[in-house]
Specification:
This protein is mostly helical. It has a single domain, classed as Vanadium-containing Chloroperoxidase, domain 1. The radius of gyration is 20 Å and the shape is elongated. α6 packs antiparallel against α8 and α8 packs across α10. The N and C termini lie far apart (56 Å). 71% of the residues lie in helices and 0% in strands.
Length: 221
């Protein structure tokens, strides 16, 4: 058994089962099965770009005569928030995938499935939402949680004074996505906790990179 599996002691397994079984109901089955997809870094990046493009379209910055150039300029004009958001997705996603390969921690359903084959924990049945796939890949940390917390942290650093409603919405989404990963039996609470910490760290690194680049660019026009 892997050393992080040893950390999945009573509290980790208990909290997992309380969420996976204790919250079980048809509404949350639908809500979390849809919400969890918003945690994909690629989906989040597309949403960020779509918002930037929509804002440009509203201001009539996009022109058919020079479509691709005007599209690029629309995104570029909003680089102060587009860039750190995209960079944090890349940093967080790559870091989470790399750590998973080194940690090699089984996801809840996979863990209990293997334990059942060994004749252990036979009284524990993991609840799976119908139609959701089974994941037999390593799970620490939660990548969905990483990118979601990274996005919410970047938004907090950029918009905490100018757009509190947006910041609150993104944190609500981040916690919903994190909870969905446990509810759907894709991650242990410890996986989600690790992902949330990694996401916050990724956000600060992203902000530092983008600000340093901006200062360097302004100093050397």
């Amino acid at each position: 058994m892997h050393y992080l599996d040893l950390l999945a002691t009573h509290w980790d397994r208990t909290i997992f089962l309380q969420i996976n079984h204790g919250l079980k109901n048809p509404f949350l089955d639908i809500y979390f099965s849809k919400t969890t997809n918003l945690g994909l870094g690629g989906v989040q990046a597309c949403i960020v770009l779509l918002i930037a493009i929509t804002m440009g379209a509203i201001k009539k910055e996009i022109h058919l005569a020079a479509f691709w150039k005007s599209l690029w300029l629309t995104i570029y004009r909003r680089r102060e928030w587009v860039s750190p958001l995209l960079v944090c997705f890349i940093i967080g996603g790559l870091a989470a995938d790399t750590i998973k390969e080194f940690v090699s921690r089984q996801r809840p359903w996979w863990f209990y499935h293997n334990q059942h084959l060994a004749g252990k924990f036979l009284n524990v049945i993991v609840y799976r939402v119908p139609g959701m796939p089974v994941l037999k890949v390593y799970g620490f940390p939660s990548g969905h949680t990483t990118t979601s917390f990274a996005m919410a942290t970047v938004a907090t650093l950029l918009f905490s004074h100018s757009n509190k409603a947006l910041v609150a919405l993104l944190w609500f989404a981040a916690f919903s996505i994190a909870l969905s990963r446990i509810y759907l039996a894709y991650h242990w609470p410890l996986d989600v906790l690790g992902g949330s910490i990694l996401g916050v760290v990724s956000a600060f690194i992203s902000m530092k990179i983008c600000r340093n680049y901006s200062l360097k660019r302004n100093a050397n026009p």
